[in-house]
Fold this protein.
Amino acid sequence: MTWSRVAAAAVSKGASFQRFRVERLEPLSGGHIRLTCRELVVDARAVVLAAGAWSRSLARQAGENVPLDTERGYHIEFAMEACPIKRPVSPVDLGFYVTPMEGRLRVAGTVELGGLSAPPNADRIAVLERGVRKLFPKLGPARTQWLGFRPSLPDSLPVIGRGRRQPNIIFAFGHGHLGMTLAGVTSRIVASIIDNRDDGLNLSAFRPDRFG
Ligand SMILES: Cc1cc2nc3c(=O)[nH]c(=O)nc-3n(C[C@H](O)[C@H](O)[C@H](O)COP(=O)(O)OP(=O)(O)OC[C@H]3O[C@@H](n4cnc5c(N)ncnc54)[C@H](O)[C@@H]3O)c2cc1C
């Protein structure tokens, strides 16, 4: 399902979307949270902090020191009418995944601890490209290449739950290599937390304050 279809499904159930960059997150007296963006200020009753690899500084403003880092990974794509494979595969000795997409073939993988601001490393793209050309020697030129940020914690578990100091801030980030796979489960848990519903799940391993 594409982003626009997910968004359309949410809007049909009453959601509305506005996209702004939050520059400051500030707890107010009375439990409200003030979000300051360049274009507007919002005072919210509850905030879900789900800014992926960029969540660390916002978490700090919410009073939690979460040792979030990013495992950078690289993608390269080739235009292709008919993909030579019908499902994602991993040549494990080469250390990446090859996925058939609509009209293109995607090659993705590698792990690089390089932070959020360092420029992409061309050598890593070259490793992917050399590897995939071994599998499919007739590939044309690469069409796109990009760097992605996996939001990761030292214990490889996400951070999900209410803030200890600011219970109206619900943390939901740090899913590392599995953020897309786990998005549905995490969002259901977040909804139950906001509704104060007890779904009988033990979430203690994911506590935002588990790192002290
Ligand atoms: C090469 C590679 C391959 C991967 N393959 C898979 C896979 O096969 N399966 C899988 O499940 N996962 C995979 N992942 C991991 C997955 O992409 C991540 O775990 C997932 O994207 C994390 O989702 P997220 O919503 O937490 O963060 P993101 O998807 O990064 O979303 C965070 C959002 O927050 C926004 N944001 C940041 N700061 C602010 C701010 N201050 N104010 C407002 N908005 C802000 C960003 O713009 C962004 O839209 C892969 C990652 C990489 C790099």
Residues 21-68+155-206 form a domain with the FAD/NAD(P)-binding domain fold (CATH 3.50.50.60). The chain has four helices and ten strands.
